[in-house]
């Protein structure tokens, strides 16, 4: 689903999808299935949204802003849950199964609140050479927490001591998915991975830019009621099914599957280009040229075809491989057809 603004985050509740935008004070609610029709819009004046999460225990959606936390119920006006006092540099938020709100702030601190905004717990991680800051945190069984930053995934206890750490498996966002596995969203690497919460073993790479076209993913939400995974990146919101029998369809492809996908995308793009009016006119003109004339005008042909591909045509395929095909493959398609014609008629 392509929206008009860059998305800050998304959540779902009772068959609806809630979306917040970067530096924008509106909250949009969509039907949670195709065609994702807009249902309702709330405006919260001067709100600067940072994160969004669902409280399944209290049946509501929380919005983390720079100065407070907002609550939205299905058809009720948004209400302010609590305001921050000492908390500065607010990072991210997560909600536990029991409805507790965990907020990361000032890079190393976590505060846990109840639904009324009362502080239940305060933690400051004990910094190490590897871990100097934390981006996001989730609470797991046994009272431990799992946190992440750009380079590391780590577990720490209630006193802030880091008890387990894995290098080169970091991310900007972390959440719990099906079977209580951790889903780690890595913006820099353009991937979404599923990790075992106990062993930190990588179970699978769920999404990649090569196969799924997810560029710079920065937020995700797992819907416990529907089994869907919502991933937001730039101004796109992608919805994936994570029912057990459908999981394989969304696991990142093998090298051979990626090559097959690229071939299929190239075929689609070549067909679209060959059916374009500008391309047909180009071929018609080339039919009348000699070999020397064709060689002399190849630069003009290049500009004409690439201008069409870059501006006039909105391609439905938005994957990284497809964009490479656009820039590299269009000219050879046009020019080779011209050359084949001349060779056949020489």
Key phrases:
globular, single chain, 2 domains, alpha+beta, four-stranded antiparallel β-sheet, Neuraminidase, 346 residues
Task: Describe the largest sheet.
Answer: 4 strands, antiparallel
| CATH level 1 name of the largest domain | Mainly Beta
Q: How many individual β-strands? A: 23
CATH topology tier name of the largest domain: Neuraminidase
Average pLDDT number: 80
CATH level 4 superfamily of the largest domain: TolB, C-terminal domain
Question: Mind sketching the topology for me?
Answer:
Blueprint: E1 7-13, E2 16-21, E3 26-31, E4 38-43, E5 49-55, E6 60-65, E7 68-72, E8 79-83, E9 90-95, E10 101-105, E11 109-113, E12 119-124, E13 136-139, E14 145-148, E15 152-156, E16 162-167, E17 173-176, E18 182-186, E19 191-195, E20 202-208, H1 209-212, E21 217-222, E22 228-233, E23 236-241, H2 255-274, H3 277-287, H4 291-296, H5 298-312, H6 320-344
Antiparallel strand pairs: 1-2, 2-3, 3-4, 5-6, 6-7, 7-8, 9-10, 10-11, 11-12, 13-14, 14-15, 15-16, 17-18, 18-19, 19-20, 21-22, 22-23
What would you say this structure looks like, in words?
- There is one protein chain.
- The chain has 346 residues and is α+β, with helices and mostly antiparallel strands.
- The protein has two domains: 246 residues, TolB, C-terminal domain (Neuraminidase); 89 residues, no CATH class.
- A four-stranded antiparallel β-sheet has the order 1-2-3-4, with no helix packed on it.
- A hairpin with a 6-residue loop joins strand 3 and strand 4.
- Helix 2 packs across helix 6 and helix 3 runs parallel beside helix 6.
- The chain is globular and about 80 Å long.
């Amino acid at each position: 689903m392509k929206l008009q603004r860059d998305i800050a985050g998304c959540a779902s509740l009772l068959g609806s999808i809630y979306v917040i935008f970067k530096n924008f004070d509106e909250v949009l609610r969509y039907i949670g299935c195709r065609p994702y029709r807009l249902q309702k819009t709330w405006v919260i004046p001067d709100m600067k949204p940072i994160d969004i999460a669902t409280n399944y225990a209290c049946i509501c959606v929380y919005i983390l802003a720079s100065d407070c936390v907002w609550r939205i119920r299905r058809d009720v006006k948004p209400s302010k849950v609590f305001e921050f006092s000492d908390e500065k540099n607010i990072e991210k938020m997560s909600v536990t199964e029991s409805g507790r709100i965990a907020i990361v702030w000032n890079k190393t601190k976590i505060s846990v609140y109840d639904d009324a905004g009362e502080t239940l717990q305060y933690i400051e991680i004990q910094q190490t050479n590897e871990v100097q800051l934390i981006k996001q945190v989730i609470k797991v069984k046994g009272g431990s927490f799992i946190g992440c930053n750009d380079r590391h995934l780590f577990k720490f206890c209630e006193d802030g001591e880091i008890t387990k750490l894995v290098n080169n498996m970091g991310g900007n966002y972390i959440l719990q998915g099906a079977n209580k596995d951790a889903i780690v969203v890595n913006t820099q690497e353009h991937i979404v991975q599923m990790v075992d919460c106990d062993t930190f073993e990588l179970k699978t790479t769920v999404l990649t830019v090569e196969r799924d076209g997810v560029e710079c993913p920065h937020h995700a939400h797992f819907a416990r009621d529907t089994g869907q995974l919502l991933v937001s990146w730039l101004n796109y919101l992608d919805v994936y099914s994570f029912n057990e029998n459908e999981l394989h369809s969304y696991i990142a492809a093998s090298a051979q599957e990626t090559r097959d996908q690229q071939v299929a995308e190239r075929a689609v793009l070549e067909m679209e280009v060959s059916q374009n009016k500008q391309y047909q006119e180009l071929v018609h003109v080339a039919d009348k040229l000699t070999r020397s004339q064709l060689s002399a005008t190849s630069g003009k042909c290049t500009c004409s075809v690439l201008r069409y591909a870059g501006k006039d045509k909105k391609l439905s395929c938005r994957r990284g491989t497809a964009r490479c095909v656009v820039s590299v493959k269009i000219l050879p398609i046009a020019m080779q057809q011209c050359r084949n014609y001349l060779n056949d008629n020489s």
